[in-house]
Cytochrome P450
Amino acid sequence: MLTTMSFVYVPSLFTAPLAATLFSCVLLYMLYMRCIHPLSRFPGPVKASLTNGWKAYWVYKGVLHERLVHLHNKYGPVVRIGPNHLHIWSEEAISPIYKAGRMMGKTEFYDAFTAFNPNLFGGTDENIHSLRRRQLSHGFSQASIEKLQPLINTQLEILLQNLHRYAETGETFDLKEIISLYVLDILGEVAFSRSFGAQLTGKAEQIPAINDHLLLSCVIGELPFQNLLKALARWSPVPWMRRLVQSRNNLKRVCAESVRYKMAHPSERRDLLQSLVEARDSETGAALSEQEINSEAFSMLVAGSHSTTGTLTLLLWHLLHNPKIRERVQDEIQEVLGPLSTEKKAYPIQGLEASLPYTMACVRENFRMNPVFTMPLWRRVNSPAGVQIGNVHIPHGTNICISNYVLHHNPDIWGTDHAVFNPERWLKMDEESKAKARCLIPFSVGHRMCIGRNLGMTNILKTATTLLSWFELEPVEREKMVRLKSSGIGEMEGAFLCRVSLRDARHLPLDVWYMVAEILHHRTKLPSNEYESGDWKREALSEYFPNLRDLVNLSSTCSWFRNLLAPRIFAFVVLRNTTKSALSIEAVSKGNWASCVKELRYIGISEIDHTIENVYPPEVDKILSNLAQFRDLQSVTVQFPVNYEDLYYDGLFQDEFDPDPANALVAEKDSASRGLMLASFRAIISNYNSGSQQLPRSLTIHDLNLATVSIFSTQVFRDFLSHLQTFNLSLTAWDNGAGWNLNTQEIFYGLPDQLGPWFFNHLSSVQEFSFDARSSSRLGAGGQDSRSHDISLRNATMPHLRKVTLEHIIICKELVDFLVRNIATLESIVLKNCFAMLNDSEAHSTGWCDFFTALARQNPLRLRSFQLICENDKDDMLDLDFTYNDPQWDPNPHSLAQARNKLETEPQAHVFPYGYLDDKYGFGYRSHIDNQTAFVAGADERAYRELVDLMTRNAPGSVLHEIQYPEPGDEYN
């Protein structure tokens, strides 16, 4: 017999009093910390005054140094960043904090770095520190470091060989990665008596382990109960915490095995590990135990590899992105040290620092701008009377510190140009400059100053001078800003992609170099995808091509030029529809450089009063009809820039779009611009009728304008499209000058429907497909109103499609159907500046939740990469502070509060963009109300996570998923 039982919760008599007691304790604690605590008078974030978790959080995020600069700019020279912690960024604090000896002892922060026994860096006992420094000082002296030069040269030669190989192939590589492998192998040689072989294998498991150790130590070091946290970390339910602990243990094992082997097999080899084994106290003769040797070797590997790699990489970044400074450094190296050769492959380390004043100025400026040792070096005020720093009295027991990065970005010391790389500031000899120099403390100061300074400076100077003498390093991204990411010892954020060539050109005449410099100068002025006006286009290109042709005619000057410089100059060539331009490209094909051409960009420009004979000379047709002569040509880009006047006066600007190919054929006989498009496409297509297997399989059409091209409707054009493996299309970015976007003009209305029949429906071999509707003609909400249209993908099937990139597309059912239809082969989706729309029954749009869910339901799912690149950052999309002062349009205050709370409690939560199209002008606007509603509801986030989880299960270890927002204007405390 079954009975029904009801359970009724009866509050305990102790529950309410217990809750009230806890609440009272928390309230009293907060009142004490904010109003009564000796540090309550110092400004700073509220959260930081209550918990050390504030510091730990920003350390974990890798941006504590940036937050501290922000706080000092906001609050002044002294900021409270912990319950008992003050951070100072003034010069007058350096000596009282770091030169006061035992009156400023190290805090428990350093205990977190102990892997074996406390080492020279992490030990807090001053007596042990003094003993250890006496034991190690000889091994780290400049004389001892100079004896390590053969070991350093061995690894430097491997680095040079790798760079020579990249120079021969023209391959792009990550300079930060190869520097890190090189430095790790040097540390292996000098600290562990063996190379790790990282440069030879191209990988090193020690590097992630070092990063993990630093992150774990710096986070735990900022928290109380360190011993408990370290003990619990290995059993943590958080996977990344367990991984950090395992990485540290693996690193300890490597160190212990090396030390044990060294002690069991003594040798004559001179390196730092041997120095540790032989180290003796000059006063007592005491030697190091095996555990103490383990600890010091571990410290050398962690601090030496990360700090040297970061500093050297950032120094090279600044030099490569400041060509005039780099050239001056290279001139100084050549003038003072002379050229290198096969007999002398690297510069000796003796005297480098003293003989290269400008190079050292660059090194110092790099130390100032990006000191990689960013962790706060905490000291505790042990004096019962406290300490006086300037006009501020710091009470006994307070933890205080200065951070290098923060001090080095104090505008009161360095001026308003503190964020500018300016080596000249180190060449001045006045008193003010000398005072500033005392504020440069990349290796700290006082008796705790870094003992590895000589080794670090040796590696940095020897490597930088040698590389700059042998090679010309060229960054792939010239305009990119560098950012230091650091949990304690930092490195530049992201990869540092470069190309390299040899510098040895002593046999080239000087006039050749003048011509090369002029051409490269004009190359930087060439536009890439955007052409704003006809005059500007013609001016930039007309300056470039005559010089290019002259340079091509120097093909017999030297083989070095032909083999090393030409592949980079001619990898990308621009063909205009002029005779001069065509003759220049022809000279490339006949001057031993045809195989260098990887991309051909064709730009056809016509004037209103031109004829077809004026705008399409036979020399141009000859190039376009014979692409097979560029046997390694990979892609062709076509662009016919037009403006409003061209459309109007050339008969293209009509009341309605005319897709009839018969009418287009008639217009192409009378209109120069339309005849130019027909002739150009006809010549390009003719290559594919020749049966050549070496033709490019990538076509890009930029700024597709509103004119129907008759050949688009022919079978020969469709067959041409069916051979392509990559197809990229962007519509024209245009308005009529009065603020109305293209999608409000009647002539535009018929164009979107033709994109499928013309292009998308015939891409049967395409593996990579991209489509940019442009901001002035957003597509994807067909049926909403006359300002928006379908995207013509409803009949597009691409059976080999692996990657799709879409920009300025409204998320819609048509898009979802297209992706689902091709999901069996699709591996990557990239959406740029796209948004969804809600609450519009007439629209074909769909929400992000439905979008992600539709993808996640597909089986099999090969998708490995999903990227959403947003037009606005999270704050802009939510717009929590904006108001219309109209209850009808303003969001509900409760919703605003929920959104703010979620931003603070869930900083990793994503905002997925929603928007709408303006009825009159056609602009796309973000909908902050929809963004707030969807953000708080969280359905989009959950659906996105489900998709990511499915991707990860299907392709473990190789999934890329990211949502990129622009850099925010500011962060909250």
The chain has a mean pLDDT of 81. The two ends are 62 Å apart (CA to CA). The domain at 126-501 is CATH 1.10.630.10 (Cytochrome p450).
